[in-house]
Specification:
This protein has 315 residues and is an alpha/beta fold. The protein folds into 2 domains: 11-223, TIM Barrel; 228-312, Immunoglobulin-like (Sandwich), CATH 2.60.40. 14% of the residues lie in helices and 32% in strands. The chain is built from 5 helices and 17 strands. The strands form 2 sheets. Strands 1, 2, 4, 10, 11, 12, 13, 14, 15, 16 and 17 form an 11-stranded mixed beta sheet that branches. It has a 6-stranded mixed beta sheet with strand order 3-5-6-7-8-9.
Protein backbone atom coordinates (compact mmCIF):
# COMPACT_ATOMS: atom_id res chain seq x y z
CA UNK A 1 0.00 0.00 0.00
CA UNK A 2 1.42 3.37 -1.04
CA UNK A 3 1.26 6.81 0.51
CA UNK A 4 1.08 8.42 -2.93
CA UNK A 5 -1.29 11.40 -2.73
CA UNK A 6 -2.72 11.49 -6.22
CA UNK A 7 -5.82 9.33 -5.67
CA UNK A 8 -6.60 10.84 -2.28
CA UNK A 9 -9.66 13.08 -1.84
CA UNK A 10 -9.33 16.84 -2.08
CA UNK A 11 -6.98 19.00 -4.11
CA UNK A 12 -3.37 20.16 -3.95
CA UNK A 13 -2.52 23.23 -1.86
CA UNK A 14 0.78 25.09 -2.32
CA UNK A 15 2.70 26.03 0.80
CA UNK A 16 6.02 26.96 2.37
CA UNK A 17 6.90 25.28 5.67
CA UNK A 18 9.99 27.28 6.68
CA UNK A 19 10.46 31.07 6.87
CA UNK A 20 11.41 33.79 9.34
CA UNK A 21 10.31 37.28 10.34
CA UNK A 22 11.90 40.28 12.05
CA UNK A 23 10.89 38.82 15.40
CA UNK A 24 14.10 36.79 15.00
CA UNK A 25 16.61 37.11 12.14
CA UNK A 26 14.34 37.92 9.20
CA UNK A 27 13.82 41.32 7.58
CA UNK A 28 10.02 41.47 7.22
CA UNK A 29 7.28 41.65 9.82
CA UNK A 30 5.10 38.56 10.27
CA UNK A 31 2.28 40.36 8.46
CA UNK A 32 4.53 41.19 5.50
CA UNK A 33 5.88 37.64 5.29
CA UNK A 34 2.33 36.30 5.14
CA UNK A 35 1.29 38.96 2.63
CA UNK A 36 4.27 38.22 0.36
CA UNK A 37 3.35 34.56 0.05
CA UNK A 38 -0.39 35.18 -0.21
CA UNK A 39 0.12 37.65 -3.07
CA UNK A 40 2.31 35.20 -4.98
CA UNK A 41 -0.01 32.25 -5.33
CA UNK A 42 0.63 30.34 -2.13
CA UNK A 43 -2.29 28.81 -0.25
CA UNK A 44 -0.57 28.51 3.12
CA UNK A 45 2.69 29.01 5.00
CA UNK A 46 4.15 28.18 8.36
CA UNK A 47 6.13 31.03 9.92
CA UNK A 48 8.89 29.25 11.82
CA UNK A 49 10.91 31.79 13.76
CA UNK A 50 13.85 30.63 15.85
CA UNK A 51 12.63 29.23 19.18
CA UNK A 52 15.53 30.60 21.22
CA UNK A 53 15.93 32.43 24.52
CA UNK A 54 17.71 35.34 22.82
CA UNK A 55 14.43 36.05 20.98
CA UNK A 56 12.23 35.21 24.00
CA UNK A 57 11.12 31.89 22.46
CA UNK A 58 8.69 33.30 19.87
CA UNK A 59 5.86 31.14 18.61
CA UNK A 60 4.21 33.65 16.33
CA UNK A 61 0.42 33.79 16.27
CA UNK A 62 -0.25 34.32 12.57
CA UNK A 63 -3.97 33.52 12.78
CA UNK A 64 -4.96 37.19 12.31
CA UNK A 65 -3.47 37.08 8.79
CA UNK A 66 -5.67 34.24 7.59
CA UNK A 67 -8.11 34.97 4.78
CA UNK A 68 -10.72 32.98 2.90
CA UNK A 69 -8.04 31.67 0.52
CA UNK A 70 -4.85 31.79 2.59
CA UNK A 71 -4.08 30.08 5.87
CA UNK A 72 -1.21 29.58 8.30
CA UNK A 73 0.13 26.63 10.26
CA UNK A 74 1.66 27.76 13.55
CA UNK A 75 5.23 26.62 13.95
CA UNK A 76 8.82 27.29 14.92
CA UNK A 77 12.39 26.26 14.21
CA UNK A 78 13.45 24.45 17.36
CA UNK A 79 16.96 24.57 18.79
CA UNK A 80 18.43 22.55 21.63
CA UNK A 81 21.50 20.49 22.47
CA UNK A 82 24.33 19.78 20.06
CA UNK A 83 25.03 17.60 17.04
CA UNK A 84 28.09 15.36 16.68
CA UNK A 85 29.99 18.41 15.41
CA UNK A 86 29.08 20.50 18.43
CA UNK A 87 26.52 22.68 16.65
CA UNK A 88 23.08 23.50 18.03
CA UNK A 89 20.26 21.51 16.43
CA UNK A 90 17.85 23.02 13.86
CA UNK A 91 14.54 21.15 13.83
CA UNK A 92 11.47 22.29 11.92
CA UNK A 93 8.15 21.91 13.74
CA UNK A 94 4.91 22.82 11.93
CA UNK A 95 1.70 22.66 13.93
CA UNK A 96 2.82 23.60 17.44
CA UNK A 97 0.37 24.98 20.00
CA UNK A 98 0.95 28.54 21.15
CA UNK A 99 1.70 27.34 24.69
CA UNK A 100 4.49 24.98 23.63
CA UNK A 101 7.15 25.29 26.32
CA UNK A 102 10.87 25.96 25.79
CA UNK A 103 13.25 23.04 26.33
CA UNK A 104 14.18 22.22 29.90
CA UNK A 105 17.89 22.07 30.71
CA UNK A 106 17.54 18.39 31.58
CA UNK A 107 15.56 17.57 28.42
CA UNK A 108 17.41 15.68 25.70
CA UNK A 109 17.06 16.70 22.07
CA UNK A 110 15.20 13.46 21.35
CA UNK A 111 12.79 14.16 24.21
CA UNK A 112 12.27 17.73 22.97
CA UNK A 113 11.42 16.43 19.50
CA UNK A 114 9.13 13.78 20.98
CA UNK A 115 7.31 16.47 22.94
CA UNK A 116 6.81 18.55 19.78
CA UNK A 117 5.37 15.54 17.94
CA UNK A 118 3.12 14.67 20.88
CA UNK A 119 1.89 18.28 20.80
CA UNK A 120 0.73 17.75 17.21
CA UNK A 121 3.66 18.96 15.12
CA UNK A 122 4.86 17.72 11.75
CA UNK A 123 8.60 17.54 12.41
CA UNK A 124 11.44 17.68 9.86
CA UNK A 125 15.22 17.70 10.00
CA UNK A 126 16.21 21.08 8.55
CA UNK A 127 19.04 21.76 6.07
CA UNK A 128 21.27 18.77 7.02
CA UNK A 129 24.11 19.67 4.64
CA UNK A 130 24.31 23.26 5.89
CA UNK A 131 25.65 22.14 9.25
CA UNK A 132 27.13 18.78 8.27
CA UNK A 133 24.58 16.63 10.01
CA UNK A 134 25.47 12.94 10.26
CA UNK A 135 23.32 9.85 9.98
CA UNK A 136 24.03 9.15 13.64
CA UNK A 137 22.67 12.60 14.45
CA UNK A 138 19.45 11.93 12.55
CA UNK A 139 18.97 8.49 14.08
CA UNK A 140 19.48 9.92 17.56
CA UNK A 141 16.15 11.75 17.26
CA UNK A 142 14.19 8.49 17.19
CA UNK A 143 11.80 7.01 14.64
CA UNK A 144 8.95 9.51 14.75
CA UNK A 145 10.48 12.39 12.74
CA UNK A 146 8.39 12.82 9.61
CA UNK A 147 10.64 14.32 6.92
CA UNK A 148 14.02 15.52 5.71
CA UNK A 149 14.45 18.93 4.12
CA UNK A 150 15.85 17.90 0.72
CA UNK A 151 16.22 21.49 -0.44
CA UNK A 152 16.53 24.81 1.36
CA UNK A 153 16.65 28.01 -0.67
CA UNK A 154 18.57 30.21 1.75
CA UNK A 155 21.28 27.58 2.31
CA UNK A 156 21.88 27.46 -1.43
CA UNK A 157 23.87 30.71 -1.16
CA UNK A 158 26.65 28.63 0.45
CA UNK A 159 26.03 25.59 -1.81
CA UNK A 160 24.61 23.65 1.14
CA UNK A 161 20.93 23.66 0.24
CA UNK A 162 20.60 20.00 -0.77
CA UNK A 163 19.61 17.33 1.73
CA UNK A 164 18.80 14.31 -0.44
CA UNK A 165 21.98 12.57 0.70
CA UNK A 166 20.55 12.34 4.23
CA UNK A 167 17.21 11.05 3.00
CA UNK A 168 18.88 8.30 0.95
CA UNK A 169 21.26 7.25 3.73
CA UNK A 170 18.37 6.89 6.15
CA UNK A 171 16.19 5.05 3.64
CA UNK A 172 19.10 2.69 2.95
CA UNK A 173 19.05 1.82 6.65
CA UNK A 174 15.40 0.87 6.50
CA UNK A 175 14.13 4.12 8.01
CA UNK A 176 11.17 5.84 6.34
CA UNK A 177 11.17 9.61 5.94
CA UNK A 178 9.41 11.90 3.51
CA UNK A 179 10.90 14.84 1.59
CA UNK A 180 10.13 18.54 1.93
CA UNK A 181 11.62 21.51 0.10
CA UNK A 182 11.42 24.95 1.70
CA UNK A 183 12.59 28.52 1.33
CA UNK A 184 13.84 29.19 4.87
CA UNK A 185 13.20 32.73 3.68
CA UNK A 186 14.66 35.66 5.62
CA UNK A 187 14.00 38.32 2.94
CA UNK A 188 17.16 40.26 3.75
CA UNK A 189 18.51 42.67 1.12
CA UNK A 190 20.61 40.85 -1.46
CA UNK A 191 19.32 37.47 -0.36
CA UNK A 192 16.98 35.94 -2.93
CA UNK A 193 15.58 33.25 -0.67
CA UNK A 194 11.81 33.58 -0.97
CA UNK A 195 9.09 32.17 -3.23
CA UNK A 196 11.20 29.36 -4.67
CA UNK A 197 10.69 26.00 -2.92
CA UNK A 198 7.33 24.65 -1.81
CA UNK A 199 5.27 21.61 -0.95
CA UNK A 200 2.06 20.58 -2.70
CA UNK A 201 -0.23 19.01 -0.11
CA UNK A 202 -3.31 16.96 -1.06
CA UNK A 203 -6.09 17.71 1.41
CA UNK A 204 -9.83 18.25 1.38
CA UNK A 205 -9.60 21.75 2.83
CA UNK A 206 -7.06 24.54 3.15
CA UNK A 207 -7.27 24.37 6.93
CA UNK A 208 -4.36 23.79 9.33
CA UNK A 209 -5.79 20.55 10.73
CA UNK A 210 -6.43 19.06 7.28
CA UNK A 211 -3.04 20.15 5.95
CA UNK A 212 -1.20 18.74 8.96
CA UNK A 213 -3.02 15.42 8.72
CA UNK A 214 -2.06 15.17 5.04
CA UNK A 215 1.56 16.11 5.75
CA UNK A 216 1.84 13.45 8.44
CA UNK A 217 0.28 10.86 6.11
CA UNK A 218 2.78 11.75 3.36
CA UNK A 219 0.13 13.04 0.96
CA UNK A 220 2.36 15.63 -0.68
CA UNK A 221 5.34 16.23 -2.91
CA UNK A 222 8.03 18.93 -2.92
CA UNK A 223 8.97 21.23 -5.79
CA UNK A 224 10.83 24.24 -7.11
CA UNK A 225 8.44 24.61 -10.04
CA UNK A 226 7.49 21.36 -11.84
CA UNK A 227 4.10 19.89 -11.00
CA UNK A 228 3.54 16.16 -10.55
CA UNK A 229 0.01 15.24 -11.59
CA UNK A 230 0.12 11.47 -11.05
CA UNK A 231 2.39 8.52 -10.28
CA UNK A 232 1.23 4.98 -11.05
CA UNK A 233 3.16 1.85 -10.10
CA UNK A 234 2.72 -1.25 -12.27
CA UNK A 235 4.41 -3.84 -10.01
CA UNK A 236 7.31 -5.64 -11.66
CA UNK A 237 6.93 -3.64 -14.87
CA UNK A 238 7.13 0.15 -14.72
CA UNK A 239 6.36 3.42 -13.00
CA UNK A 240 4.26 5.88 -15.00
CA UNK A 241 4.21 9.57 -14.17
CA UNK A 242 2.35 12.57 -15.52
CA UNK A 243 3.76 16.03 -14.96
CA UNK A 244 3.95 19.57 -16.23
CA UNK A 245 6.56 19.80 -19.04
CA UNK A 246 9.90 18.38 -17.86
CA UNK A 247 13.25 17.49 -19.39
CA UNK A 248 14.43 14.77 -16.99
CA UNK A 249 12.76 12.07 -14.92
CA UNK A 250 14.74 9.92 -12.48
CA UNK A 251 13.50 6.89 -10.57
CA UNK A 252 15.88 6.25 -7.69
CA UNK A 253 16.52 4.02 -4.73
CA UNK A 254 19.59 2.98 -2.77
CA UNK A 255 19.68 -0.72 -3.70
CA UNK A 256 22.37 -1.97 -6.12
CA UNK A 257 21.27 -1.79 -9.74
CA UNK A 258 21.09 -5.05 -11.68
CA UNK A 259 23.96 -5.28 -14.21
CA UNK A 260 23.14 -4.55 -17.82
CA UNK A 261 23.76 -7.26 -20.43
CA UNK A 262 27.49 -7.71 -20.97
CA UNK A 263 28.41 -6.08 -17.65
CA UNK A 264 30.00 -8.21 -14.95
CA UNK A 265 29.10 -5.95 -12.03
CA UNK A 266 26.07 -4.00 -10.96
CA UNK A 267 26.06 -0.25 -10.77
CA UNK A 268 25.91 1.81 -7.62
CA UNK A 269 22.66 3.07 -6.23
CA UNK A 270 19.84 2.25 -8.58
CA UNK A 271 18.64 4.99 -10.92
CA UNK A 272 16.51 4.84 -14.05
CA UNK A 273 16.53 8.04 -16.09
CA UNK A 274 14.67 9.39 -19.09
CA UNK A 275 15.57 12.61 -20.88
CA UNK A 276 13.42 14.52 -23.33
CA UNK A 277 12.07 17.92 -24.27
CA UNK A 278 8.78 19.00 -22.74
CA UNK A 279 7.83 15.53 -21.55
CA UNK A 280 4.48 15.30 -19.73
CA UNK A 281 4.09 11.52 -19.49
CA UNK A 282 6.99 9.19 -18.78
CA UNK A 283 7.26 5.42 -18.32
CA UNK A 284 10.27 4.24 -16.31
CA UNK A 285 10.93 0.47 -16.53
CA UNK A 286 11.60 -1.55 -13.40
CA UNK A 287 13.60 -4.35 -15.06
CA UNK A 288 16.92 -3.15 -13.63
CA UNK A 289 15.51 -2.01 -10.29
CA UNK A 290 16.09 -3.99 -7.11
CA UNK A 291 14.60 -3.24 -3.72
CA UNK A 292 10.99 -2.61 -2.81
CA UNK A 293 10.82 1.19 -2.84
CA UNK A 294 11.78 4.16 -4.99
CA UNK A 295 11.41 7.90 -5.18
CA UNK A 296 11.10 10.20 -8.19
CA UNK A 297 12.99 13.36 -9.09
CA UNK A 298 12.00 15.43 -12.11
CA UNK A 299 13.62 18.51 -13.64
CA UNK A 300 12.30 21.09 -16.06
CA UNK A 301 14.31 22.97 -18.70
CA UNK A 302 15.17 25.68 -16.14
CA UNK A 303 16.82 23.04 -13.93
CA UNK A 304 14.10 23.30 -11.30
CA UNK A 305 13.33 20.04 -9.52
CA UNK A 306 10.39 18.28 -7.94
CA UNK A 307 10.68 15.36 -5.54
CA UNK A 308 8.16 12.67 -4.72
CA UNK A 309 8.13 11.03 -1.34
CA UNK A 310 9.49 7.48 -1.32
CA UNK A 311 6.88 4.91 -2.28
CA UNK A 312 6.58 1.13 -2.40
CA UNK A 313 7.00 -0.70 -5.70
CA UNK A 314 4.67 -3.59 -4.88
CA UNK A 315 0.90 -3.48 -5.17
Amino acid sequence: MNNLPFDKPGRFWKGNLHCHSNLTDGALSPADVCRTYAENGYDFISLTDHFLAVYDYPLVDTRPYRTERFTMILGAELHHGQTEHGVMWHILANGLPLDFAPPAETETVADFVERAIDAGAFVSIAHPQWYTLTVADALSLGDRVHAIEVYNTTCDETDTGAGSYMLDLLLARGKWYNAIATDDAHFRPGRNDGLQNFVMVKAEANEPEALLAALKAGYFYASQGPLIHDIQVVPGDKVVLRTSPISTAILRNTSPKRPSPGMSVAGGSCSVRQIGNGMTEVELPLESVTGDWARLIVKDHFGRRAWSNPFKLEA
